[in-house]
Prior knowledge:
The protein is built from 22 helices and 31 strands. It is of the alpha/beta class. The chain has a 7-stranded parallel beta sheet with strand order 11-12-10-13-14-9-15, with helices on both faces. A 6-stranded parallel beta sheet has the order 16-26-25-17-24-23, with helices on both faces. The chain has a 5-stranded antiparallel beta sheet with strand order 2-1-4-3-5, with no helix packed on it. Strand 23 (about 525-530), helix 17 (about 540-545) and strand 24 form a beta-alpha-beta unit. Helix 1 (about 80-95) packs across helix 2 and helix 1 (about 80-95) packs across helix 12 (about 350-360). The protein is globular. Bound molecules: adenosine-5'-diphosphate and zinc ion (ZN) (2 copies). One zinc ion binds next to loops. Adenosine-5'-diphosphate (ADP) binds near residues 209, 235 and 241.
Amino acid sequence: MIETEKKLFATIIVDQAVGKPLDYAIPTSLHSAIEPGMRVVIPLRKKQIKGTVISLHPTSEVENPSEVIELLEDGGRIPEHLFSLMKWISDYYGSDLRKTIMMMIPRSVRDEVQQKKQLMICLKKSPKELTEIAADIRSRFPKQASVLDVLLQNTKGLLLTELVQKAGVTKAPIDTLIKKELITSKQVIIDNSELESDEFFQTAPKTLNDEQAAAFKKITATIDQEIYQTHLIHGVTGSGKTEIYLQAIDHVLKKGKSVIMLVPEIALTRQTIERFKSRFTQPIAVLHHRLSKGERFDAWQKIRTGDIKIIIGARSAIFSPAKDLGLIIVDEEQDSSYKQKDDMPCYHGRDVAIMRGAMTKSCVILGSATPSIETFYNAKNDKYQLSTLSVRAGNAKLPKVDIIDMGIEYDKNKGPTLFSDKLLSGIERRIEDGEQILLFLNRRGFYTSHVCTSCNEPIKCKHCDVSLTYHKNDHLLSCHVCGYSIQGVLEKCPTCGSKETMKFRGPGTEHVERALHKIFPQVRTLRMDRDTTKHKGSHDRIFREFRSGKADVLIGTQMIAKGLHFPNVTLAALINADSSLHIPDFRSGETVFQLTAQVAGRAGRGVLPGEVIIQTLLPHHTVFKHAATEDYLNFYKEEIQERKLFGYPPFSHLARFQISGYNEKRAEKFAHQLRTHLIKTLPKTCDILPIAPCGHAKIKDKFRFQFLLRSPQIAGLGKYLNTLMAHIKKPSGTYLLIDIDPHSTF
Length: 746
Ligand code: ADP
Ligand code: ZN
Ligand code: ZN
């Protein structure tokens, strides 16, 4: 009896932008080896290309599909648990699998970009022998002789590129010497990762205080049981959350498991990394956006094989193929940088972390001084285990906070002013006593707009619906979104044509710095914003200089608000605390509270007591009242009632549909078509709000519209949208971005 040959087919997502997954037949020889997640080579339009196996099945609807050519090495393979995570992301965030794969697996891994290897040339005989040989051949082969001369001075070996340069020869004489077996060459990897070569003083674990110990006990219980559970550590700044992370990591490492720790992009500083490198002797992968392709590929492989078990990085580090994951930490879980918002899938790093924890039975720790309302709600409802740290660790005290009514200051000053009297005297005293000051302002540049006082129109970018910012140092007006700029300032209003009506509004960090120097000529300042940190390493340099006391005042934007530890800072001030309160968004109160509390948390972290000044035109706003006393609980109580009243998350789910296009009419028309279709096909429990221009109605020449969907349930929506998108016809030049659980609706 002849056994009928069993058939097997694979659905494959090819790397090239082909609309949908394709079916391929699998040759019998590969039946037992092939698995979902593997990388394969397949034929497509007479070319051989790479792809990822999504699923395997005994039948295919495609008639006589082509055959898979070969299986690739494991290097680019998506491990099984990441594979289920990928499917979840695709379904939940309404983003097709191909896009999801492309986002999760770095390009260098898909393309298997090896670390750049260089040739190292070394001596193959003893220096004594070679010295004689060099003398011997010098008259006939002077070039070979000089290669030997240089190598004899560098007996540890030289890179080929260095040798060629030092000996002043081409590669030919070197090749000849290799053939003669007088010298050898070997491939080496040049490691240029920044911190690798540094040595750190090892720090010992601290004895935990009672609150820390209680939190740690709950966490280790989860780790020891090898179950999934999310913990929220709600602890004021400086209360010792990081110390708990460090000890939890140690606990997991001792079990041979690995850890992923997410930190906000901005906090991925040398100071943070040093703290981890000085506690663990094990290698640590620090995944930041400056890694070269080769470095990224190399890190991926070492993480995949378990050679590296500690992974620290921003949002996308959650996709690292950690082997035997035991713990995921999301520090500052409320941080908006965890949400991808400009590209689909618009995933939330924290939520993906929780899902990955559940899929891999790992412990998840979220940490924050000011948790997002959604997270705290989950903790209150026992979805997460809550631990509270109410006092600063060590001996540091919470700072004294003053809210200054800037309305009164403006009256005293007979016009707007940047600094209240209280702030000025505070600064003066610190300069005299050699203590340090942080001044926070959410705007960079000198003035944030150039406005006509006759028609009230600001000068806007040619390509964006955004006011141009004046930069005094460069004497230009520039767009902070697309980089468009005009040299100098305008004499005449381009809108109404009136002359001498152009005025500047809205001081930025550059202005604060100059104004401060006018008042205190002797003051030493450092400024930190995107203008001063364009160059690699400048971020760390400014922090180092400030820490070592090279300046009295550090002026900056968000960059200075997060996670920094400057023991000598005793005064921190928000120059204009309400700048974000006016943004029409359900999260604006939360954002202002978080920022205020964060800046406040920078003062008095050492032995000296700290003081915080909040300058505002809304001194009675409850956000400031609660932030001033670090009273998160009362802030939460008020905020959650408001969310309930208006049906915002966590009492509903939101989805934001953003439609953009170079042709305004066409984009708007498509938005209407899509909305009408959704109203017709989605359940009646989905509330679909009207279409409106986005907060910035035009960005980089694209007109942008949006509408919101509000629903008690979100499960199934992404999957439905995925199918819908595969069938719907978008007009050319029109783009759709679906943002599930948007961080902001502005
Ligand atoms: P957070 O992460 O909550 O801001 P950290 O973990 O950075 O707090 O702790 C703030 C400071 O207190 C650090 O200098 C840290 O070394 C110190 N610290 C933390 N826990 C303890 C402890 N149990 N005993 C003594 N010092 C501690
Ligand atoms: Zn005008
Ligand atoms: Zn622009």
